[in-house]
Amino acid sequence: MIDKTRELALKILYKIDKEKAYSNIVLNEMINQNKKELTNKDIGLISEIVYGTTTWRLTLDEIIKKYSNIKLKKISNWILNILRMGIYQIVFLDKIPKSAAVNESVNLAKRYGHKSSSNFVNAILRKVTVKDYEDFSKIEDDIQRIAITNSMPVWIIEELAKQLGDMKKVEEIAINSNLRPHLAIRINNLKIAEKNEQNLKGKITKQDLIKKLEEKNIKVKQGLLKDFLIVENAKNIENMEEFRQGLFTIQDETAGLIPIILNPNKTDVILDACSSPGGKTTYLAELMENQGKIEAWDIHEHRTKLVENAAKRLGITNIETKVNDATIYNEKYKEKFDKILLDVPCLGIGVLRRKPDIKWQKSKENINEITKIQKKILENCSQYLKKGGELVYSTCSILKEENENVIKEFIQKHKNFCIENIKIKENDKIQNKEFFEIYKNNNNYLQVYQNYETDGFFICKLKNKMY
After folding, report:
1. Taking the C-alpha atoms of 13, 17, 22 and 25 in order, what is their torsion angle to the nearest 10 degrees?
2. Which end of the chain is more exposed for a tag (fewer CB within 10 A), N or C?
3. Considering only the top CATH level, what class is 183-250?
4. Same CATH topology for 4-134 and 253-464?
5. CB proximity list for 147: less than 8 A, separation 6 or greater
6. Can you give the pTM of this predicted structure?
């Protein structure tokens, strides 16, 4: 009999490989389609296998190579993913007995392969032990060792080595890229009052929300940023009544930091040129207390709908969405906006622990392609900024080509722009002392590499100094 949870995990992995689909999107879709048949424990195991197998794919493939007399490219995608799933359970999940991992994998191979497939899977998995992984630490070449022991493509390790010149730092980033990320939520200050407010006007307090979550057996602690909470043991959080009521939204703190640094005023007219799915856009609106105006652009209508839906759920009315391509200049927007947020498309090397599939879908050749887009967006949108206005350029990447180099080239061409010092200590939304130990300015850039608390990202604030 086929185990339903492992079969669903296999189908998700197949879609990620064959359709280049995003792991989180496929996972959520598959769980929602089968939620009547799944328990929370089932959902937990499916998520563990999907994210774990995707994260450790390179390492798992190296173990397969050790025992297989068939080259990886000649193994069917179904059987290859069954092997990866089985090895992941044997090597990385000590709570699952090896016999269970082997037997369930063999059962899957019988259904998704030929007659000989189950024998092939059985023969390999019975040879695999934790020692297979431990042996990789003996590889003498640093690049290869770090790549294989941390399941990181060699080209990323090489780029970071060239950029940092410190293999210990490179290895630290690689290790941190595989840590399980915290789940952070941002409280909606339009619906949640400060504790000391005299008139709640129908709002609840932050402590009320925490109490509601704790009653659901969710562990809650204060985040690094004032409006953020870190939650544990939160299952199906988007189906909670408090989420549907718009009391909070799911957002990583590093993403939340970007609107804080833009520091909007209530009367500002703001452009968020790459807005979908709307996390940063809606936080800007909340910081503006639902006043002023925000134009939220994206190149596809279905993506602007995501922003609209998020705004509606949170009770936000000052956002206007438009289908617009920020890489194409439009004269009618010249000097229209007080402030601009450019969270531009990037390779996403800073968020690999949240989106591990990125590692296998990007290549070194993509660097040149993506920086062309980033430069076009910055070039065009900078002209939409009023004189004296401010612009924040950000990415969730850690490669210099996408970040510092883009800014340097822009500043050299545009003498009317200067880099503004990011004064994070002066913002009342940042009050945690631990924050200042993690986020350190570097020549007015904020470049953070993956660590225990946060993802990797880059933020730079520019000012049009011409009056």
Report:
1. -40
2. N
3. alpha beta
4. no
5. 58, 153, 154, 157, 174
6. 0.92
C-alpha span between 238 and 227 (Å, rounded): 18
Give the Å distances, CA to CA, from 272 to 315, 379, 385, 405: 19, 15, 12, 22
The two three-digit tokens of residue 13, written as one number: 């992995």
Residue 109 CA, distance from chain mean position: 32
| Token pair of 92 as six digits | 């990385």
Please count the other Cβ atoms lying within 10 Å of the Cβ belonging to residue 140.
6
Q: What are phi and psi of 316, to 5 degrees?
A: -100, 135
Alpha-carbon gap, residue 454 to 460, rounded angstroms = 18
Among the listed residues 381, 396, 418, 460, the single catalytic one is: 396
Q: What is the pLDDT along the chain (467 residues), one digit of tens a residue?
A: 788 999 999 999 999 998 888 888 889 899 889 988 888 889 989 999 999 999 999 999 999 999 999 999 999 999 999 999 999 999 999 999 999 999 999 999 999 998 899 999 999 999 999 999 999 999 999 999 999 999 999 999 999 999 999 999 999 999 999 998 889 999 999 999 876 555 556 688 999 999 999 999 999 999 989 999 999 988 778 889 999 999 999 999 989 999 999 999 999 999 999 999 999 999 999 999 999 999 999 999 999 999 999 999 999 999 999 999 999 999 999 999 999 999 999 999 999 999 999 999 999 999 999 999 999 999 999 999 999 999 999 999 999 999 999 999 999 999 999 999 887 766 777 766 666 555 655 557 888 888 877 889 999 999 998 75
3-class DSSP assignment, residue 215: coil
Amino acid at 346: C
Render the burial of 60-98: b for 16+ CB within 10 Å, e for the rest. Answer: bbbbbeeebeeeeeebeebbbbbbbbbbbbbbbbeebeb
Architecture of domain 4-134: Orthogonal Bundle (1.10)
CB 311 within 8 A of CB 282: yes
d(CA 458, CA 176): 17
**Cβ pair 144, 136 in contact under 8 A:** no
Is residue 396 part of the annotated active site? The answer reads yes
Where are the chain's structural domains?
Answer: 4-134, 140-176, 183-250, 253-464
* 142-149 helix and 57-67 helix, angle to the nearest 10 degrees: 100
| Assigned superfamily of 253-464 | Vaccinia Virus protein VP39 (3.40.50.150)
Q: What are phi and psi of 148, to 5 degrees?
A: -75, -40
